[in-house]
Each structure stands twice: as C-alpha cells, then as structure tokens.
Amino acid sequence: MNSDKYSAYCREHVKEFRDELRDEASRALTSWPGKSGGVLFIISSLLTYLNLSASGNPYAFNTLFTYAAPILLIFLFPVSSLLFSAVDKHSRTVMDLVCLTTIFGFCLTLKYVFEPQDSLATQSELFLALSGQLNFSLLMVTAFSYHTSYRVTFVRNVLFTIVFTTLVYLVNEQYLATNLVQLAQGFLAGSIFSWLFFSRIQTRFYYKSIDADTRQHLYNQLSKLVYPHQLEMIKSGDQLEDTMPVEKGRAIINVFDVQNSSEIKHERTKSFFLDVFRAFSQICMMGYQHNPLKSRAFRLKETGDGFISSIGYPFLADDPNSLADHAISTALIMFKAFNEEVRRFGYATPIKGAMGLAFNSVQGTFQSSGIKSYDLFGEALIQAYRYEEIRKHPSIAKIINDAAALKGLQHFNILIIQEVIYNSLKAEYKALFKAIDLQKGGFTIRQDITAQCVYFHVLE
Q: 134: which of 152, 205, 274, 421 lies 20 to 30 Å off by Cα?
C-alpha cells in the first residue's frame, strides 16, 4: 500500500521526480560510485592485459582499451558539467550510455580472450572461468537506472539483455550456450536489484518532498503570525524574543473605533469590520523594510470593532519628517480607506469612525508563557483610549456636534489628538483642528490629568 502511495505521488509530481533522479544520477557519476566504477574498469583492463600477456595472447594490448568509452564518460562528465552546465541535465542518459558501453567493452574483451584459443579443452576452461563474469556484468548494467517509471527501467533492462546476449552470441556461440543459466540469473538478479533501487529512490523522494511541503506549509502559516524580518531572523537561528524591540521607547498610539457599532444590523457586519482592518493593516505596512526596521505604522491589535496602531515604535516611521505630521497623515489615509469600505458595504445609514491619538512612553514585550505573541504596553496606549472615548462625554460631544454643524455635517468621522501632538504639527495640519479648553469646561482626562486642551477634527 505504501508503495502504491509513493508511486502515485511520484506520478503526480513527475517533473520534480525527474529532477530528483537527474540529480541522483549526476551525484552517482561525479562522486565515489562513479569514480569507483571507473577505477574498477581500469583495474579490470590491467589485470586482463597482464593475464593475457603471460599466456602469450597477441591481443593482450588491445584489452587495455576495451573499457575506454565508459571510463572516459565517467571521468569526463564532472569536468564537462563544470564547463557546460547543460551537460548536467543529461546525467541520466550518460548513465545509460556508461552501462551500454560497458556491455560492448565486456564483449570486446571476450572476443580478444577467445580469439586465439583453438583447442576445445582450453576454451572449455575459459568458459568455466568466465561464467561468473557474465552473470556479474549483466547484473551491474541492469541494477541501476534513473528513469521516472520502473516500466521504462524494465524495458531498458530487457533491451540491454538482448544486446548483451546478441553480442555474446556473435563473439562465441558455444560460450553463450554454456552460460544461458548465468545469463538468466544475471537478468533476474539485475531486475530485482533495479526494483529495490528504484523503490528506494521513490520512497526517499516522497518523504523528502512531503517534508519540504510540510516545512513550506508551516512557513506560510507562520508568516501570518510574524513579520517577514522575524521569519528571516528565525531562519538564521535567532530566538523569537530577539526579533522585535523590547526596550522602552516613545510612540504615538492611534486607537480607532466604529461609532455606534452595536447599532449596525447586517449579516455581513463581521466581514465589513474585517475588510476595514485589512485595509488599515495594508496602510500600516506601507514602506515596510528591515535594517533599519521601519514602516508607516505598526499594527498592534484588532478589538472587535476597533483597531490599534503605533507610530514610531517598534517600527521607525517611514516619513523622515515630524512624527506628529506622520501620524495625522496616516490617520487621514485610514479615514479615507474606512469611507471606501463603508461605501462598498452599502449600509442604509451612514457609518462613521473615531480616532484618538496620544504620544507617550511604550514598551514592547513577549508573553512570558504560552504562545509568545508580541504586544505593547505603556502610558501612550492608555491615554489614546481616553482621548478616543472623550467624544462620548455629553459636553464634549455637544462641542464636536456644533462644530460639525457649522461645516454642514450631520454624520462625520472624528479625530481627537493630544496637545503635545497638536503643538508638534506643521501649520497645514494645525489648521484642521479646533481646541477644547478642558480647564474651562471642568473636564479631566484620566491618565492625563495635566492636559489643559484637547484638539479635534471632524471630517466626512
């Protein structure tokens, strides 16, 4: 059953399997198996030469070159593949040529051995002495193959056996007749070994590919949880806790909330919120890069109908100008994206959002146990929540509504910012905001009790 599973997988991924076999054949030719085979041919040629020279065979010298073709193929292939990379693509064909030329080399050696032997007794001794070589030679040329289908390998082995049998017949018909059993044994043993060899490669390819697919799947899923630079650092051996800043810093926190979200009654309400947050996340990733780590903003979290982002920490702002200007620019882009998603949603009544921006200290942290997700904490987050919520205070709400009415707006988005952010803005952005004197109205913002003013901007 496993064999069927491996075979089916290899058929479905035949191109990848072919590439794997090509690489296997290339390694076999260039590493120790190929070099061992080449050395074996050389030693065999030398021993045959010495043996025939001692017996006075006039063709002894010729036997030094009977295996010249496979020897050249084996030792020239690594050099050729270095000089011409395209040669490496044909490694499987080269391996078949090595086996085929080995057959011709062996039969040519037999011819030189048998040629001068006239007496029947002498030939019979040679037949007996060489019977084992016939079996071994056929076994070796049929045992190893690098084709994507074992049917192809089996047909190849049958053709090699036919060629081998024909050549032996042409060299010495009686030698063939004497060793038919050895020939059959060589073919059967070669077929068995070739099947085991093919199954081994097939099984190894399956597990290697499945392991690679699993790693890729895990990588793809992990990329949904961490940033690209974190993935690269983890791949390089860094710990997760070292991939994001955890020291203290200062940042502008942007807290976004959909006004009166509980009143939205629609079957696609959740999908609408997800579309809005997806658009905000894309805005945050504008200008993202590593070394130094920077982007337009850092997406901190989604809170049902809210979205929190940080500007200036842990990612540097991609705008080299004022951090405050950059935060207002980002907020305006987010409102534009929000309005576009509202338009696509097509709800019967207007849907508007509110943002609160505060600048103060923050610090990064990884959870101490369980899933180690990255988070921020600090005064800036708490204050940003308070600035976004202050719009709900009746007196503040009246001031904002009156300002919107002067603009002719009945439904509007609200942007509320901290005094320190307003004071840091360029004139163009300052002109957008109106001030609310907190001391005059007797208001106090919790977690920012020293605040004297708050600034707001209403927009469509």
A: 152
